[in-house]
C-alpha cells in the first residue's frame, strides 16, 4: 500500500502506545482504510476539511466556557479530523469492564445509603465515606426507582505504554461531553461520507433515544406520556450547549429552577396554560444547588421542596442525588474491592495505582517522589487544581505540599501514566498527540447499554498530558468497528 508524506513523516513517541502504529512501525490493520483514504488527499483537501469542520462548529454554536479570573469566555471546541479507531475486540473488552464496574458501584451506592454492609465488613473505612462532602445523609434509607442510582455515567479510560486500558475516573454525577460525541460524528459524516460505511463504523446516534426510553420507564405515574424535563443551571453554565442539544434530540422541555414549583410534594412546570405535573427530571444541577431548603440556601438554580417530592416518590431524578460519594477520588481506590465484594469477580478494567494522602505513610512516599506523580484534589474536575510533578518547578511543588498538609484527605496522587497517542492533523502534517476516552453508559430498568464509541479527548499541545478542553485540549471522533 502506498503511504503519503503524511505518514512517512509521522514519528511515534518513544515508550508510548500508538493507536495507529505498532511496535515494528507498521500500521495497525484497523487504520489501513483510513490511511489509504487520507493518502489520496492533498494538503489543500485536508485543510479545506479542517476549515469546514471549524465553520460547522461555529455555525452550530458548539462551544464550551472557560472560566478565567471569574469571567466566562466562550470558545469553539477544537476538533481533530483524523478519527480514533477501536477494534471490535477492544471494544468488547471495554464494554464488559464498564458494565462490571458500574454494577458494583451501583450496589455500593444502594448499600451505603441503606444497610452499609461494606462498612461493617471493613472493606471501605467509615471515615472515608463520612468525610466525603458528597455523602448526603438526606439520602439515607431513601429508596430510588428500580434501585438505580447511576443512570448516566462517563467513565474516563486511558491506555498505558503496553496498551492496557485503565480507568482514570468514574464520572457519576452529571457527566458532560456526550453532545460533543454526537456532533463529532455528524461532522465526520460531512467530511468523510463514504469512509464510515467502508470501515464498518458502528453508530452512536441512538444515545438520545436510549436515554429517553430509560427516562420514560422511571415515571412514577403509569401514564402513556409522562412529563420529562431537563433541568439546566442556565445559559452561563459551561455545558449549556449540551443541555439544549439533548433536550432537543429527546423532545423534552429544557427548564431552569425558576420554571418549576413544588406543591403538595409534587413538582410542577409553569406553562402558559397553568401548572403541569413533572414526572422525571434529568438534572444537570449539582446536589448543592438542587434544593435551597435542604442544601445551599443561597441557591437560585434549584427548586425549593424538590427533595421532599423525591422522597415521597412523586418525581424521579436522574442521576440520583448523593452519587458523588461513589466518584470521589478517595473512594476510587476501593472500586476493585467493591467488585470482588459485591460480584465475587476479579476486576476486568484496572485502576491507576493511587495513593491516598490522608494516609501518613503514603503521603511520605508521595512527597519523596512528587516529580513522578500527578496530584489531584479528590473532588476536583476539569483539570483544575492538579500538580503535574514532572512539569512543576521546585517552588510550585513546595507550595502544593503546603496545600496538601492543610487537608491531606482531600488529595490523591498517581504515577504519571504515559497515555496513548493517536495521529492528529496539524498544519499539513500528522503528529502524535496524547488521548483518553470517555464512553457513555446508560443504566435503565433493562440493564446497562453503552453506545459504541465515546468522546476521545486530545492534548493538542505538544508534550502535554492534559486533555481537558478547559486546559487547551480538543476532541476527535471515536470509531468502533463492527465485528
The largest pleated sheet is described as: 5 strands, mixed
The percentage helix is 25-40%
What is the name of the CATH class of the domain at 94-168 and 203-343? Alpha Beta
State mean pLDDT (0 to 100 scale): 91
Poorly predicted segments: none
> What gross morphology would you assign?
globular
The beta-strand count equals 23
Strands ordered across the widest β-sheet: 3-23-22-19-18
Domain Circularly permuted ATP-grasp type: 83-459
Protein name: Circularly permuted type 2 ATP-grasp protein
InterPro entries: ATP-dep_Glu-Cys_Ligase-2, CP_ATPgrasp_2, UCP005522
Organism: Mucilaginibacter calamicampi
Give a written overview of the molecule.
This is Circularly permuted type 2 ATP-grasp protein. Residues 83-459 form the Circularly permuted ATP-grasp type domain. It holds the Pfam family CP_ATPgrasp_2. It is a single chain. Among the domains are: 94-168 and 203-343, Rossmann fold, CATH 3.40.50; 353-415, 2-Layer Sandwich (Dna Ligase, domain 1), CATH 3.30.1490.270. The longest helix has 25 residues, at 88-112. The mean pLDDT is 91. Helix content is 30%, strand content 24%. α3 crosses α7. With 483 residues, the chain is an alpha+beta fold. The chain is globular. It has a five-stranded mixed β-sheet. It has a five-stranded mixed β-sheet with strand order 13-5-4-20-21, with helices on both faces. It has a four-stranded parallel β-sheet with strand order 7-6-11-12, covered by helices on one side.
Amino acid at each position: 500500500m502506498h503511504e503519503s508524506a503524511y505518514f512517512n513523516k509521522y514519528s511515534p513517541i518513544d515508550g508510548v502506545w500508538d493507536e495507529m502504529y505498532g511496535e515494528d512501525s507498521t500500521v495497525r490493520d484497523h487504520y489501513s482504510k483510513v490511511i489509504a483514504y487520507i493518502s489520496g488527499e492533498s494538503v489543500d483537501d485536508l485543510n479545506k476539511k479542517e476549515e469546514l469542520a471549524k465553520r460547522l462548529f461555529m455555525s452550530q454554536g458548539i462551544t464550551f466556557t472557560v472560566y478565567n479570573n471569574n469571567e466566562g469566555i466562550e470558545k469553539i471546541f477544537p476538533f481533530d479530523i483524523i478519527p480514533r479507531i477501536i477494534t471490535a475486540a477492544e471494544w468488547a473488552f471495554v464494554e464488559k469492564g464498564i458494565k462490571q464496574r458500574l454494577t458494583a458501584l451501583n450496589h455500593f451506592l444502594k448499600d451505603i445509603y441503606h444497610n452499609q454492609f461494606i462498612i461493617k465488613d471493613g472493606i471501605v473505612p467509615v471515615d472515608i465515606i463520612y468525610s466525603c462532602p458528597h455523602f448526603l445523609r438526606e439520602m439515607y434509607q431513601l429508596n430510588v426507582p428500580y434501585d438505580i442510582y447511576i443512570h448516566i455515567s462517563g467513565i474516563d479510560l486511558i491506555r498505558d505504554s503496553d496498551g492496557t486500558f485503565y480507568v482514570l475516573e468514574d464520572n457519576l454525577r452529571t457527566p458532560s461531553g456526550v453532545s460533543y460525541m454526537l456532533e463529532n460524528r455528524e461532522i465526520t459524516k460531512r467530511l468523510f461520507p463514504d469512509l464510515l460505511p467502508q470501515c464498518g463504523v458502528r453508530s452512536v446516534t441512538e444515545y438520545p433515544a436510549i436515554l429517553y426510553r430509560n427516562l420514560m420507564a422511571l415515571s412514577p405515574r403509569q401514564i402513556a406520556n409522562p412529563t420529562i424535563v431537563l433541568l439546566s443551571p442556565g445559559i452561563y453554565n459551561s455545558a449549556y450547549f449540551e443541555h439544549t442539544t439533548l433536550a432537543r434530540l429527546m423532545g423534552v422541555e429544557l427548564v431552569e429552577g425558576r420554571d418549576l414549583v413544588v406543591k403538595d410534594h409534587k413538582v410542577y412546570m409553569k406553562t402558559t396554560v397553568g401548572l403541569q405535573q413533572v414526572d422525571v427530571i434529568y438534572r444537570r444541577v449539582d446536589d448543592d444547588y438542587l434544593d435551597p431548603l435542604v442544601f445551599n440556601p443561597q441557591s437560585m438554580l434549584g427548586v425549593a421542596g424538590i427533595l421532599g417530592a423525591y422522597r415521597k416518590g412523586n418525581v424521579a431524578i436522574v442521576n440520583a442525588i448523593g452519587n458523588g460519594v461513589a466518584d470521589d477520588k478517595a473512594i476510587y481506590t476501593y472500586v476493585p474491592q467493591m467488585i470482588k465484594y459485591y460480584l465475587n469477580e476479579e476486576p476486568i478494567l484496572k485502576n491507576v495505582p493511587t495513593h491516598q494522602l490522608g494516609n501518613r505513610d503514603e503521603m511520605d512516599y508521595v512527597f519523596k517522589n512528587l516529580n513522578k506523580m500527578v496530584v489531584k484534589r479528590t473532588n476536583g474536575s476539569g483539570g483544575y487544581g492538579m500538580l503535574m510533578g514532572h512539569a512543576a518547578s521546585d517552588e510550585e511543588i513546595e507550595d502544593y505540599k503546603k496545600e496538601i498538609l492543610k487537608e491531606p484527605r482531600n488529595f490523591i496522587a498517581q504515577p504519571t501514566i504515559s497515555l496513548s497517542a493517536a495521529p492528529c492533523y496539524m498544519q499539513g502534517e500528522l503528529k502524535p498527540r496524547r488521548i483518553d476516552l470517555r464512553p457513555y453508559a446508560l443504566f435503565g430498568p433493562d440493564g446497562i447499554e453503552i453506545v459504541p464509541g465515546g468522546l476521545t479527548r486530545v492534548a493538542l499541545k505538544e508534550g502535554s498530558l492534559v486533555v481537558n478542553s478547559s486546559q487547551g485540549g480538543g476532541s476527535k471522533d471515536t470509531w468502533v468497528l463492527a465485528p
